[in-house]
Amino acid sequence: MKPFTEEDVEFYIQNKVERRHHLVSKTVDEVQKIIQQLTAEISYRDTRFQAISNSGVHNENFRDQLALLAKWSALLRGKRPFHPSVQVLAPSHFLITVPLRGLTGYRERQVRHWRYYTVHGAKLLSPVRDPEELQQWLEVEQFSKSLQQWHETEVNIEGDLVPAKVLAIFRELMEKSITSCNLSSKVSVLESFSSVVRVAVETPDSQVEVELVPTVEIPTCWPERARWPRCFKRWPSQEKVQCIKSFGFNLLARSNYHWQLGFSRAERMLIEGLDEDGGCRMKCFRVMRQMKEDVWCTGNKPVLTTYHLQMVLFWTCEKYPRTKDWLCFREGFLRMVQKLHKCVSQHFLKHYFVRGTNLLKYANTSDLDLVAGKLAVFLENPVLCLD
C-alpha cells in the first residue's frame, strides 16, 4: 500500500473497480434470470404479483403515462443496462423488488391514527406503534382502482393492506414455484425471524442472498413525508428536481404493519448525468465503494451497504454543488470519505429524501465503531490497496 497518485487511481480503477463491476454485473444477470423465472411463475399462480420484468416504467401503473415513458427512455438512451428491480447492497447481497398489480390511482390522505389488531387479525387492547419517518400505513381505499383480491381478509385487515400478510402469501408462492420450476438445486428459501422473504441463489461463481420485496410502484405522485429539496440548495437543479419527482416513489412490504417508502427511480435519476460537467463524483463513489468492500467493511452482509454510500454521495454532492469542487479526484474523494467517517462515527446517516430517518439507527454499533476506526486510519494516511 502506498500514497495514491493519479496513476495509482487509474491502475486501481482498471484492476479493482472495473473487475468488480464485471463480476457483479455477471452475477446480477444470472440472479435476475432466475428470479424472473420464479416471479413469472408466481404471477401465473396469483396475478396480484408481477414478474420482475414489469418493474419500473414497464409496470402497468406507468402504461397510461406516455409522457413519463418518453422522458424515461430519453434519459436512459445510450446508458448502461439497468435492472430497475435489482439493488446491489453488496456483491453477494441483493434486494429485488417484486411489483404488485391491481393497485392504481394512488392518492395521499389522512388515515386513521390508531390500529388495534395483530397481523393475524386478533384484537389488541393497546394500539400498534406508529410508523417511523420512512414508513406509512396503506389503506386499499387510497387507490381509485383496486382488484377485489386486495379487499380479501387474507391481505386486508380493517381496510389496511398488511405487509406481513402479503409477504406470507408471497413466501408460500415462492416455495411452490421453486419446486415447479425445478430450481431447488439453485434456490432455497432462508429462515427468517421476521416476515421478510429471503432466498439463497446459487450462481456459477458464488452464492447470493436476495431479499425479495413485494412493492407498490406509484408514478407521478411524490410523498408528503419526502420534503425535498431543501430550500436554497443548488444541487440538483430545479429542472432535475421536477423531473425526478415526476417519476414518483414506491411502497415496499418490509415489515409487519407498515409500508416503507422507496425512491429507486429518483435515485437512478440523480446518478444519471451526475458528471455531465466533467466532474469526478462517480469516480470518487466507485473507488470509495471498492475500498469499503475490500478494506473498511468487508463480508457478505456488511454493516454498511452500497445504499449507505449512495446516500453519502448525494449529501456530498448537495454540500459541494459547484463544478470546480469535483475537478480534482483526490480532494473530492477525501471529502466523500470524510463525510462517511463522520456519519459512521456518529452512528447517524440521514436518508437523502426523508431527512428524519437515520439509516444507521438499527446497525450494530460495535461494527460501526470498527469501520470508523479503519476510516480514521485511512484519513490519517490516505493510501489505496493496490495489491
TrEMBL record:
<dbReference type="InterPro" id="IPR046903">
    <property type="entry name" value="Mab-21-like_nuc_Trfase"/>
</dbReference>
<dbReference type="Pfam" id="PF20266">
    <property type="entry name" value="Mab-21_C"/>
</dbReference>
<feature type="domain" description="Mab-21-like nucleotidyltransferase">
    <location>
        <begin position="85"/>
        <end position="273"/>
    </location>
</feature>
<protein>
    <submittedName>
        <fullName>Protein mab-21-like 3</fullName>
    </submittedName>
</protein>
<dbReference type="InterPro" id="IPR024810">
    <property type="entry name" value="MAB21L/cGLR"/>
</dbReference>
<comment type="similarity">
    <text>Belongs to the mab-21 family.</text>
</comment>
<dbReference type="InterPro" id="IPR046906">
    <property type="entry name" value="Mab-21_HhH/H2TH-like"/>
</dbReference>
<feature type="domain" description="Mab-21-like HhH/H2TH-like">
    <location>
        <begin position="280"/>
        <end position="375"/>
    </location>
</feature>
<dbReference type="Pfam" id="PF03281">
    <property type="entry name" value="Mab-21"/>
</dbReference>
